[in-house]
Each structure stands twice: as C-alpha cells, then as structure tokens.
Design a protein that fits this description.
Blueprint: E1 2-3, H1 17-27, H2 29-42, E2 48-55, E3 60-66, H3 80-94, E4 100-105, H4 112-127, E5 131-136, E6 145-148, E7 154-159, E8 161-163, E9 166-168, E10 176-180, E11 198-199, H5 211-229, E12 240-243, H6 254-275, E13 283-287, E14 296-299, H7 303-306, H8 310-317, E15 328-332, E16 339-340, E17 345-354, E18 357-366, E19 381-384, H9 403-428
Parallel strand pairs: 1-16, 4-5, 4-10, 5-7, 10-11
Antiparallel strand pairs: 2-3, 2-17, 6-7, 8-9, 12-15, 13-14, 13-15, 16-17, 17-18, 18-19
Helix pairs in contact: 1-9, 5-9
Length: about 425
C-alpha cells in the first residue's frame, strides 16, 4: 500500500484479519485504555523507547524494541508539545525534584545523524524546563568540545567527571542521568555504583538484555491482551525461536540454527494455511543482542543457514562496536506492505514513546530493499508519520482502516511492546525510577 495514504482498498490483504483487528481495537477503546492503565500501575513504563512495526496487511507486529532510541531528530516538529509534556511526566515520576539532567550518549562522534538525535533530545529536555548538559564516555575527550551540526544546532560534549558516587561534568552536578547509550560493549566502571537515578537502568544495556527474552515477555503480554479483546494473538505477535551459543565463523551451533529455522517455518506455514495467506514464509535471523541493523539475514529454508559462504558468516558474526555475535534469535519474517513515494519504496513504521505516551514516529524507507528485507541498512531514509494527535484519537465514524484508526492500531501494538519492556525492567530487579 502506498503512503502517506496507506489505506488502499485495492490491496486485498487489508480487507482480511488486520481490518478485523483494527475493528476490535476501535470498538473496545475504553476497555483497552483501562487495560493499559492497569499495566502501568503494576509496572511503570520505561523512560523512553522506540518500536519497529511491520504491517503485512494480515498481521501487525513489532520486530524490534529499542530502549535507547536514537532518532528524535526524525520526529515531526508538530509533536514537540507532546514530547515536552511526556518528558516532564517521565522525569517527575522518577526524580520529582529534578532540575538538572546529564545526557550520556553513544561514542558516535563521526555519526552526525546520531549527534542530531542527541541535540534534538537535549533541546526537548531544555524546553521541558530542565538544565541539561552532555557527558561523554569517550576516554580521549579531555575537555569540552563544540560541534556544529548540519541542522545548525550547536552541540557541546564534555568529559564525565566522577566525585564519590556522583557523576557530572565540570561545575555541574545533575539530579539524574539520561542514558542514550545501549552499552553494547559493557558497563563502564564510571557508571557502576552511582547514587543518582539512571534512566533507563544500565541493566537494560545489550551486555545484559537479549531480544529473545524481550519477545518471550512480549508474547505473554500479547496473549493477555489478545484474550482481553478477543483476537488471535498471532495477528500481533511474531513467532520466534532462539539458539543459545553459536559461532558463525567456526560453524558451531549451525545444526541448532537450521533445525529451529525448519520448525519455525513450519509453524508460520500452519498459520498461513489457517488464514489462506499465499505469501512464502520466511524467517529473520539476527543477533540476540544489539542494534543498528547489524548481524541480520533472512532464510526460507534450513539450507540458507548451512550454505552461508565465508563473507556471509563474517557479516553475521560481527555486531556493534565489533562485538562477537554469540547468540541468535530466529524470528518470524513479517512482510511490509507499506510503500513510500512514486518509487513505491518499501517502508516500515517506527514509533517513539516517552513514559507511557506515544509521541510520534517515522517511516523507515529504503528504495533498494523489498518487502521481506530489513530496512535498517545504509541507504535508508526517514519520513515523519502522518499521525493525528499522536495516534490517540481514533474515529469510530470512519472505516477501521482509515488513517486515524490505522495509526491508532500502531500505537496500541507499540505500547504492548512497551509493557513488555516495563516487565523486563521489573524482572531485572532494578526499577526505572
């Protein structure tokens, strides 16, 4: 379906199970919002998160949940007031007396797109009424460094200073720390045993967290929610399996991977047969820990795993910051039927949340990739989602797949992933507050 009007009635897949799902979400909005409120009372939402959604027409499911989101610069400026209000709510809940905050970013000084994200996040926090500085973990940064970004925004990075169990930068001791670093390379000593609140908790970094654990929790959440609204959980839940230890270069764990691919493809095929879906089942194999679209491949048979050449195995073996991939999640491949522009480029939705609120999102678009590919790859573009009121105001007078109702469904499913992340925090033993 073409965007920004993704409700093309000519697309037959949109007249099936997904429209039924949207109808159920629309008719039970009050019960759904009450269900979410109960969840937030039991497990408060993370400080922020982003969720990648894939819309196959017959299925709408999250395929990744990032608890250290890095694309605030891609959100539409119209939703700035919503972001500011959500930031105030998030900080008030975690650190009610906070006046000053320290943002701790990734060490991506050469990635200007990422730095634009940091600058925009800091800008939003300052507009929310907080005194904000940026403390860098880069060991080579020994003095304050100013960077002029392509957007015209100024950015100042300062070396983090630790005094006792408190962190700050020269002449600045913040009330709380905002982590925008996924800790793929592990927890730095300087962050250990800190007295100030750290949001989100460092225990959610990729040195501890796994995607298979997240989607295991998500599956439980999706099941509870599906029972509440009376829909098939599969419509919102990507099937998955995982292999523990794996070494792509030494081909260790390859048999486990191949057998799990075969079993998962059979499970997907069974659901396709149930709904009369003609698509070819496929799976996505990716690192069980990590981001930035690294260490990802698709497979349509076990042979795709056992026939990897050295170049492909090398690609799968390396994650962010050169970290070795030692575990893999095999996830149901969800087609994307969304397309952008005259070139009908493949697109997928990425929703952003602060505290428990959906504050916007964007389409990740890639002209060189198809409906089964990962779009998180070099050459991708970003276009703000045409949300109306942050996807929070569906219109029962319109068709279930009309714009406000479709985006409302996106917001509901993204928040289910947020509930799963909240439960992860609770299970980690460190509350995000």
């Amino acid at each position: 379906m073409a965007l920004p009007d993704p409700m093309n009635d000519a697309e037959s897949t949109l007249r099936g199970p997904l429209q039924h799902l949207e109808s159920q979400l629309l008719s039970q909005q009050g019960d759904i919002e009450a269900w979410f409120r109960r969840q937030w009372l039991q497990t408060p939402a993370p400080f922020y998160a982003s969720v990648d959604l894939r819309n196959a027409g017959y299925k709408l499911a999250p395929v990744d949940t990032n608890l250290f989101p890095a694309g605030f610069n891609n959100l539409a400026p119209e939703f700035e007031p919503l972001c500011i209000q959500a930031l105030q709510s998030a900080v008030d809940r975690i650190c009610p007396t906070a006046r000053s905050l320290l943002v701790i970013p990734e060490n991506h000084t050469r990635n200007r797109f990422y730095l634009e994200n940091v600058a925009r996040l800091v800008e939003l926090m300052r507009k929310a009424g907080f005194d904000v500085r940026i403390g860098s973990l880069m060991p080579e940064l020994t003095e304050a460094t100013d960077i002029q970004l392509d957007s015209g925004r100024p950015l100042r990075l300062e070396p983090i200073v630790r005094e006792g169990n408190k962190l700050g930068v020269k002449g600045f001791r913040p009330c709380g720390l905002i982590l925008n670093n996924d800790l793929s390379s592990g927890l730095p000593d300087i962050l250990a045993g800190v007295d100030q609140p750290i949001m989100p908790p460092p225990t959610l970094g990729w040195d501890h967290r796994t995607k298979s654990e997240h989607f295991s929790v998500y599956s439980q959440v999706a099941g509870e929610f599906a029972d509440t609204v009376g829909v098939d959980r599969w419509l919102i839940d990507p099937l998955f399996r995982n292999c523990g230890q794996i070494n792509f270069m030494k081909r260790e764990g390859e048999e486990c991977l191949a057998s799990n691919v075969e079993m998962l493809l059979a499970s997907i095929r069974q659901k396709y047969d149930e709904y009369g879906i003609q698509d070819e089942p496929y799976v996505v194999i990716k690192s069980d820990a990590g981001t930035y679209g690294m260490g990802i491949m698709t497979a349509r048979s076990p042979d795709d795993v056992t026939s990897l050449n050295r170049k492909q195995r090398t690609k799968m073996a390396s994650g962010k910051e050169g970290r070795d991939v030692t575990g893999a999640i095999i996830q149901e491949g969800v087609y994307t039927r969304e397309q952008w522009g005259t070139q009908q480029a493949s697109a997928e939705s990425v929703l952003y949340m602060i505290d428990r609120f959906v504050v916007g999102g964007f389409y990740r678009v890639h002209t060189g990739r198809n409906a089964t590919d990962s779009l998180n790859a070099p050459g991708m573009e970003f276009h703000p989602l045409p949300f109306a009121d942050g996807a929070s105001r569906p219109d029962p007078q319109l068709d279930p797949d009309a714009g406000p109702n479709r985006f409302h469904a996106y917001g509901v499913v993204a928040r289910l992933a947020l509930v799963a992340a909240a439960r992860e925090i609770a299970q980690s033993g460190v509350e995000d507050e």
